[in-house]
Prior knowledge:
Layout: H1 2-23, H2 33-58, H3 69-91, H4 98-122
Amino acid sequence: MIKKILITFSLLYLAAIWLAYLLQYLPVYIPIYVPGYISVLSAITFLMYAWDKRQAKRSSHKKVNRTPERTLQLLALFGGWPGALLAQQLLRHKSQKRRFIVVLWLCILINVGAVGSLLYYLV
């Protein structure tokens, strides 16, 4: 149930940003690079989670380089959080570590708050 909610939340956020751009629903002009940036960064974040998951599986029998948690969290903070949530749920990676999840949600709240504040002050 929660898995479906988180996946839906991520996809709705991406869809809302693209719809706001395409329909120019907001009274302020949204340049193409805003939804493009968020979509590309989300895809990169998803791929970084997939890479780290792959490396985690390989690390059980040999030493491999993993993606630092700080890198994954910074990607989420700067706008890649929809990809992070999708990867967490679909790949089941970093979905059990309570500390990581708390920091990820703080990053999401900060990012959404910053985007909301920016739109509020631009309108």
